[in-house]
Specification:
By secondary structure, the protein is of the alpha+beta class. It has one domain: Immunoglobulin-like (Sandwich), CATH 2.60.40. It contains four helices and 13 strands. The strands form two sheets. Strands 2, 4, 6, 8, 9, 11, 12 and 13 form an eight-stranded antiparallel beta sheet that branches. The chain has a five-stranded antiparallel beta sheet with strand order 1-3-5-10-7, with no helix packed on it. Strand 11 and strand 12 form a beta hairpin. The longest helix has 28 residues.
């Protein structure tokens, strides 16, 4: 075999190897969060005829153990047969999960956040055609010494009605890995915090769930997964006089 032919073949192999590496790395990055799930979601108010709005969150996320940073993809879908018209998606963090930024969205002022939440963004959508979806890149932090939840309500553009709400739903793990570079968390799993330091007292599950939420805890218990906006908006039934 001539040296020229050998060089040509070697060059082809190098090129093929680089191409394969690029394809594999791109595929791995796209699959990091796994398929989307509507776990913890529920219809609240009836949407217009032909409109069926839902949301998706990744089945798993990964939290950097040093920086506490994590990336989440929030998706809103119209599974109906009619366009949605003007709506908005809210992305709200609770407890150990704090939403730092949502691409293309605006932060909710502190006095506009639901009780018990620590952060939130509002994402206006002029129209979501039937059969289409829209995804948002969410930058967040997760304090692994706490539990953490996220909530995705889909509302009318004025917030008067909530067509769908996913959560507040937890991300967590029952097997903390503080010595690893990152900790994987699963959607719908209550987080088991890492062991407290020598100066901290361990917290019971009841305290972790109820105390941080304060007044919102009662609202969530009474409304279930329907969530805060729905329970606060509905007037309480009046007792009938006897």
């Amino acid at each position: 075999m001539s040296s020229r032919r050998t060089t040509t073949i070697a060059g082809s192999l190098v090129t093929a190897s680089i191409s394969a590496a690029v394809i594999l790395s791109g595929t791995a990055g796209a699959d990091d969060q796994g398929p989307g799930s509507s776990k913890g979601g529920k219809v609240i108010d009836e949407a217009p005829a032909g409109v069926k709005l839902t949301t998706l969150l990744p089945e798993k996320i990964s939290v950097d153990n040093s920086s506490q940073d994590t990336d989440i993809t929030a998706t809103v879908k119209n599974e109906g047969t009619a366009d949605s018209g003007k709506i908005r998606l809210l992305v709200v963090g609770f407890d150990g999960l704090t939403v730092k930024n949502v691409q293309g969205c605006s932060p909710i002022e502190e006095n506009g956040l639901p009780e018990g939440s620590n952060s939130g963004f509002t994402c206006p959508i002029d129209n979501l055609p039937a059969g289409e979806s829209k995804s948002y890149a969410v930058d967040a932090t997760y304090d692994l010494s706490k539990t953490g939840k996220i909530c995705l309500p889909v509302q009318t553009d004025d917030g008067e009605e909530t067509y769908w709400q996913q959560g507040p739903v937890p991300f967590g793990t029952t097997n903390p890995s503080p010595d690893a570079p990152a900790t994987p968390l699963l959607l719908g799993t209550d987080n088991k915090p890492v062991a407290p330091g020598p100066d901290e007292l361990p917290k019971t599950g009841f305290e972790r769930e109820v105390v941080p939420l304060g007044a919102a805890g009662a609202a969530l218990i009474s409304a279930g997964v329907a969530g805060l906006w729905w329970s606060q908006r509905r007037p309480e039934p009046q007792e009938q006089e006897r």
